[in-house]
Every structure is written in C-alpha cells, then in structure tokens.
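Entry for the shared binder. Reason: the reviewer on the internal report wants the predicted structure included alongside the sequence.
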Amino acid sequence: MTDSAEDRLLSSIRTIPDYPKPGVQFRDITTLLGDANAFATAVEGLAQPFIGTGIDKIAGIEARGFILGGAVAHRLCAGFVPIRKRGKLPHDIVRVAYSLEYGLDEMEMHRDGVKPGEKVILIDDLIATGGTAEAAVKLLGQIGADIVAACFVIDLPDLGGRRKLEALGVPVRTLIAFEGE
C-alpha cells in the first residue's frame, strides 16, 4: 500500500477517547465506511494480494467484517460466509466458545458455509487482543477450511492479537497499525 493510501485510511478513522471505558482509544471505522474513497482504498488493500489466487470464500466476523468482507468477496469473485454471534443463524451450525474480557461468548456459522479444503480469507475491521479472530479461525478449522490469511484494516500490535493468529499458522495482513495502544 502506498503512503498516500495509508494516509487516506488513517485520516478517515475517528478516534473516540475513553470508549467503551476510560483509557481505551476506540477506533471507529464508520467514518471510513462513509468515505467512498477511503472505503474503496480499504477494500482494494485487503483484496489486492489475493487477486487471481483462487480464493473460494471470504468469512466475515459480525458486524463490521460483514461490510468489509462482502465487498472483498465481490472484488475477488468469491462467496461470503457470515460468522455470527450465537443464536442468529437458522440452519445447521458449528459453534465455538471463546473468552472475553468479562466472560465467555460463542460464535457460529452454518456447517455448510465452507466445504472442507476451500480456500478462505477471514476479514474483520480490527485485530486487538485477537480473541474473536482466534475463535473464528478455530471455527473455520472445525469444518476443514484452508485458511489462507486473516485480514484487518487496523492492527493494535501492542495487544498481541496478530501473534495469536500467527501461532495458529495463519498469516495476518493489516493495512495500518496504531502503536502504543
């Protein structure tokens, strides 16, 4: 990605201090999504390394991963698979529990959303501690997906999420990083 593309993304992300709790710098991408040029830059940056590589599916994590993942799926001529919070999908599902700062949660996807061996890219807006993304990787692994990469617009590298995914053997691609978070 060029410096101007990175600058476009950085300038389009709103930072909200002390949300959802004191000391947290919340990185709000709704401003990026509302800026046609920044949104296109993000989608192209996420998709570009995988053009022509035969990606079968994009798996997007609820909710911002749906927006970005759907656009990347379109760009790569791939299918899209939603990874949702528990209880939102109507068909035969696979589920995984994962730890949150304040307890446990579960995410799920349709069992037939990805066929064993299909090449899948996981997409979300941000990687921080990596708990949600790690759970999504494990969920995709349960059904035999070939996870090519996990891609995010924003990386908060000091929180260690990238390292968790890489320890699982999943390459991580991010477009911008906010150090010192």
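Summary line for the report: The longest strand covers residues 146-155.
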